[in-house]
Amino acid sequence: MANTDSVTVLTEPQVYLVGKQIVATLELSRFLTDHGVSWNSDSETPAEVLTETAGRVCYMSFAKPRPGGNATYLNHIKEVGHGSVLEHGVWNMVLTGLSRSLTHELVRHRAGFGYSQLSQRYVDESIAEYVEPDIIANDPELHAVWLESVKHSHAAYVKLAEMLNQKLADPAAAAAAMLPPDADRTTRRKSARQAARSVLPNATETKIFVTANARALRHFLEQRGSTGAEPEIRKLANRMLDVLAKDSPNLFGDYRKNPLPDGTFEITTPYPKV
To answer: What residues does FAD bind to (predicted)?
Structure first.
């Protein structure tokens, strides 16, 4: 993060793992007892336990599990491509330090994902931060051009928001903007910001809450961690992989990170498209 006069410049995304599943152990035990079997997973990670449980339900293979435990079981699931089982493992993350360009790509991942993103209509972007591409940040001349453009857009937003707030205080102008005659300051500010945001660049930083299952996340990592992906979203994919592989090595530990000339990493796996 760098503070440059009136704007803050970011180059690295952040991933906060804020929510995970729990296993209702008493109910799982009741199910097993009702069906005359006894079984315990050797994993303590809820997503790993639940995906293994889901897979074993398909064949009722609780009584005589293969040796090797959860890691071997889930590795076999990936080998045979039984990807629907992985849809039962779910994580909640808050992602920050992302540009609007990136989230336009991120939200194209629909199946298995849920999103809640920062609203530029309600949030004052006069204190916005901006995400600079590495290829620009690493070149002083390019950086100067980029920074000047961002500063200009930022200043224009602040000025427009101020002028629009003043304008909408006039009942006639408020009526022309389809605001109720008794519109309060909050409503007027929202209307001002939603118009002023039109000058903000794609580099404007945003925050997004993401909920996704293991299968969808694997697809994301493989698509956005590839050499053909845009560098910023490849950075995010790598950061997410670090968090997910630490939390659930049996579901994400098969991935490898290969260094690329631009300083990012390609994500590969022997089990693609599970």
So the answer is: 84, 108-110, 117, 213-215, 219
pLDDT digits (tens, 9 = 90+) for 61-94: 999 888 999 999 999 999 999 999 999 999 999 9
Q: Binding-site residues for dUMP, please?
A: 105-108, 117-121, 197, 224
Give the position of tokens 């007027």. Answer: 188
**Other CB atoms within 10 A of residue 3 CB:** 9
Q: How far apart are CA 254 and CA 245, in angstroms?
A: 9
Please name the amino acid found at residue 35: H
The pLDDT score that the predictor gives to residue 182 is 78
Q: Quick: pLDDT tens for 131-165.
A: 999 999 999 999 999 999 999 999 999 999 999 99
* 15: its two tokens: 């991933």
Side by side, the strands of the sheet bearing 14-20 are: 14-20, 90-99, 205-213, 113-117
> Quick check: 244 and 197 in contact, CB under 8 A?
no
Are 233 and 274 in contact, with CB atoms under 8 Å apart? no
* Residue ranges per structural domain of the chain: 21-87, 133-199
Binding residues: 84, 105-110, 117-121, 197, 213-215, 219, 224
Annotated binding site for FAD: 84, 108-110, 117, 213-215, 219
C-alpha torsion 194→200→205→208, nearest 10? 30
Kind plus residue range of the DSSP H or E element containing 231: helix 231-247
Q: Which residues of the chain carry a pLDDT beneath 50?
A: none
| H-state helical runs in 38-169 | 46-59, 69-80, 100-106, 134-137, 140-168
Other C-beta atoms closer than 10 Å to the C-beta of 225 total 25
Residues forming the active site = 224
Encoded tokens for 132: 């600079």
